[in-house]
Every structure is written in C-alpha cells, then in structure tokens.
C-alpha cells in the first residue's frame, strides 16, 4: 500500500517542473525538517526543477532553514506538497489553493482528508521519517545530501523528543543512524534547539517550587499575567514548559494554565491516564495523553482540575 502511494507521489514530483512545499502554521522542527528536507532531496535528484519552501518564519527556528519568497504567478502549473499538516485551516500560506495539483504527506490522524493525492500514515514518528522512507525505498531515483540529512534529523529529533516518545521505533533509529553517516553536527543541533534563556529557566524554577497537586495526582500551575510579566516570558514559551512536571513521582497528570487577555489556555499531559475526553469537555481535545483546552475563569480552571482528579481516581481505583 505504502509503496504504491509513494510511487504516485514520486511520479507527480517527476512530472512537474515547479514544486512548492508548504507546512503548518506555528512551525515546529518536524514541519520545517520535512518541508526543507524534501526540497533538498528533490533539488539534489532533479537539479533543473524549481523547488520552493514557503510559510511564516519564527525567530527561534530560523537556524533550521529559511523560507523562499515567491510571487503568486509561480503557482501557475505548480505542484504543491503539504507536509506535516492535518487539516486545511492549519496550512501556512493560503496560496496552496492556487496549486494545479495538491499532495498531502502527514503522520497525524486523517480526520480531515484533503488534496488530490494523500499519503497519511500514523505509524511514522514524524513526517521527516516519512520523507526518509520515501528516499530509502527509491534510492535508484532519489539522492540525499548532508543538508537534507541534517534537516530530516532535526525533524525526527523534534517529534520524538530526542527519541523518548513512544512513536520512536526500530525504523526510526535505523533511519537516524543512516542520516548520521552524513556530515552535520548533531551536538550543535541539540544545543541550539534545546537552549533556553535565563528568564525562562527562572520561571521553570518557580514552576517546580510552587506547583500544586490534587489528591489523586493532578499537578498544576497557573501562568497568570502577573507571573508572565514578572519573569518576562511570552505565553508560548511558558506553555512549552509543560513537561517540566513530567517524570516526578506521584504526578499522574500535569497541567499548565496560561492566562490570555480574554481566556485561559490549558496544556494537559499525562503519564498514562487518558485525558483527551476531559479536554474535550473544556473546549479542547487532542491526543489521549497530551491535549489542550480553553477555560474562561479561574473557577472553571478549578472545575477542570476536579474533573481530571476524578478521572485519575477512577483510573487507579484498584
Ligand atoms: Mn510532525
């Protein structure tokens, strides 16, 4: 199955002389790694093709690769490939609609299919691993170089949390080993990707000193407007500290509340208790062990903690 869909993707790549690659808004390392890694592989294999990567850039991830800026008429007769993006509203740069042919390549659950051709497979750790698989199965046609290898490596590292998460398979490790035979510096990638600034480190200290825990193991902390201003940390960075509360004995579920002007966004993670049903009840959803939600008062935040506490009690009652 996979090989025939891969053949169809490859046939389209061969057919078009202009290829534009998109990915999701608020890019992460896998979105950029798969997008730009695929560009490098196509350019290395078919040097005469015009291949572009587009989308908004974020400051911290500019070191991965920079975007191309192209005019609308480049889309005329172009193939557009969208990497790592589950649904249409999340595609960055709406000009994908101008495509003459649209391909989706993704490893998220296919809840909202799109594209003229769609290769979606949740068994991969990352979209970058899918691109590596495409290359591996078509080495007679496709070429990898050290730039592409670095990009795919970054994507796999990002989505597996440095090979910690359960999506990491023997194939992931095999492909990673092969990528590492190319000439790039993994230590430099780690130190850049996981460096935090001094303010964030101190906020993390406060979080560890002051988080609270409910009777049945729901750890939680409130990133109030005051806290964020005191430490000078933006909301997105603060929310990304969620896993500071992981791997602490007794924490079954951990929660961060991040106060916005008109709402309180919630990040929820779990060591094993399924929590996305609770997230769903509070204007959210997501993966069974990692979800988001939104509440509109601190009373509602308390109700969310109580609901998670009841879920933990139920799950661990024997
Ligand atoms: Mn991904």
Structure description:
The chain folds into two domains: about 1-195, inorganic pyrophosphatase (n-terminal core) (Alpha-Beta Complex); about 200-315, Diaminopimelate Epimerase, Chain A, domain 1 (Roll). With about 325 residues, the chain is of the alpha/beta class. The strands form two sheets. A six-stranded mixed β-sheet has the order 6-7-8-9-11-10. Strands 2-1-3-4-5 form a five-stranded parallel β-sheet, with helices on one face. The protein is elongated and about 60 Å long. The longest helix has 18 residues, at about 300-315. The protein is built from eleven helices and eleven strands. The protein has helices at about 1-15, 30-45, 125-135, 145-160, 170-180, 185-195, 200-210, 225-230, 235-240, 275-280, 300-315; strands spanning about 20, 50-55, 80-85, 100-105, 115-120, 210-215, 220-225, 255-260, 265-270, 285, 290-295. Helix 2 (about 30-45) packs antiparallel against helix 4. Bound molecules: manganese (II) ion. The site of manganese (II) ion has 6 residues, from loops. This is Bifunctional oligoribonuclease/PAP phosphatase NrnA. One of its GO terms (molecular function) is nucleic acid binding.
